[in-house]
Specification:
By secondary structure, the chain is of the alpha+beta class. Strands 4-3-5-6 form a 4-stranded mixed sheet, with helices on both faces. Strands 1-2 form a two-stranded antiparallel ribbon. The longest helix has 15 residues. The two termini are 27 Å apart.
Length: 202
């Protein structure tokens, strides 16, 4: 999406149907263009999305566990969304069993959207951790013992400590700590590339 001045914008927000044939919210820079005032009151956006959702029938919950590929990426996503991370370790068969155990509970009303799930090889375990605000460090919140998945998830949510930071403070503190995010794909937005070089040099 390009701005009126011809520059490539770095974010786009839209809501469309699953067939991508109809926009419920036209593409624009940020959610607050569609839901005016939601930047200061998120309930405005929630109510707007509830209204859109009324057009859809309630399908059964998905059977697959919603996974983020790669622990490093999962920690970054979780830090951005301020969510705990469920790390599933083991060989392929052990991870398959763990995912089957976690899937139905992950879609339950009490837990849907509350966790970021990922998997990797290693000694068999299911550990729930809290990322720091930059997705660099973690603190263990709970571990799944046997089949006690719901207990571990509830314990993790009870221990999880969220945080608030405006963008400017978050960025300045990250720079002070020497933390730098390197995207997986090249940055095509020249303004963003210029801003990054001005911030970090080089």
């Amino acid at each position: 999406m390009f701005s009126p001045r011809g520059g490539l914008e770095n974010t786009v927000f839209a809501i469309m149907d699953s067939g991508r044939s109809k926009y419920y919210v036209q593409p624009n820079r940020m959610p607050y263009f569609a839901f005016a005032g939601c930047d200061s009151d998120p309930s405005i956006m929630a109510k707007g999305m509830d209204k859109i959702a009324l057009e859809f029938s309630k399908d059964p919950a998905p059977s697959q566990l919603p996974l983020v590929t790669g622990l490093r990426y999962a920690l970054n996503v979780a830090a951005c969304d301020r969510r705990p991370v469920v790390i599933i370790k083991g060989n392929e068969e052990e991870r398959k069993q763990a995912k089957t155990l976690l899937a139905p509970i992950s879609w339950a009303e009490s837990y849907v959207g509350q966790f970021v799930f990922t998997e990797e090889a290693g000694p068999a375990s299911i550990t729930i951790v809290q990322p720091d605000p930059y997705g660099v460090k973690t603190t263990i919140l709970s571990t799944v013992e046997g089949n006690e998945v719901e207990r571990a998830l509830a314990e993790a949510l009870a221990k999880f400590k969220t945080w608030t930071n405006d963008h400017r403070t978050h960025l300045s503190q990250g720079v002070a700590q020497g933390i730098r995010w390197r995207p997986a794909v090249p940055v095509e937005d020249q303004q963003a590339d210029f801003a990054t070089k001005r911030l970090w040099g080089g």
